[in-house]
Amino acid sequence: MFSEINQKNKLEILGKLAASLSHELRNPLSAIKLNLDYMKMGVDELPEEMLESLESCITGVERIEYLIENILSFSRRNRNSSEKICINDVSKIAVSLSQAKASREKITISTEYLDNIAKVEFSKSNLLQVFLNLITNAIEACNGNRGEIFIRTHSSGTSPYNVVWAITDNGMGIKDEIKEKIFGDFFTNKESGTGIGLTVCKNLLEEKDAKLEFSSEFGKGTTFRIFFKTELKVQDA
Ligand SMILES: Nc1ncnc2c1ncn2[C@@H]1O[C@H](COP(=O)(O)OP(=O)(O)OP(=O)(O)O)[C@@H](O)[C@H]1O
Ligand SMILES: [Mg+2]
User: Which terminus of the chain is less hemmed in, N or C, by CB atoms within 10 Å?
Assistant: First the structure.
């Protein structure tokens, strides 16, 4: 019993340590990223191999940023306050933040947003995190093979989950035998994955009573859909 409590305390301390370490890493990392982007501005004067190493530094920094943001979201539930927000606006920010990564992989992202979509109660930064994680997965699923990603918002027509954000990719798809596992905590089938992306999405969406579903055909592609709860009737959406 005592060792159980001891173990729980250790895990709690470890969690706090991971969170504060992640937080401390944020600023120096932004400085590194900013300087790398600045160096990239002189692209015309750089030899080809220098540009390649610069690109790989940027990719590395982006991966660390991804992990830091997700560790912080995972360990600090409910810290961000929610407000009535338009998911189209947040989605546009997520797409523009993902654009550089997508272009590097020769992937196009197209969008179709429903005008005057009903607002939802959510934290802007949490929702941005969810969208970024799902876009990152879609990009990774395309594996650089002339990928196409389509993001759409619409009304489901079924109350109370009226507002829908959907992302479709024409990537590798998900094998039937792992479909049940992907929402399991920290499941990954990627060589350098941690499985934190969907775990964080699931937690942040559950907090706001939103649903995350997917359909996928192996070899063809995948669609993830988020259903947001709203009090408004369909005609108001
Ligand atoms: N769009 C997608 N297409 C194909 N498989 C997907 C897609 N999204 C998720 N998956 C599957 O779900 C698993 C879990 O995704 P999750 O984002 O939680 O972790 P990850 O992407 O493997 O690692 P990390 O997010 O830490 O980089 C993935 O490893 C992959 O097998
Ligand atoms: Mg992921």
Answer: N
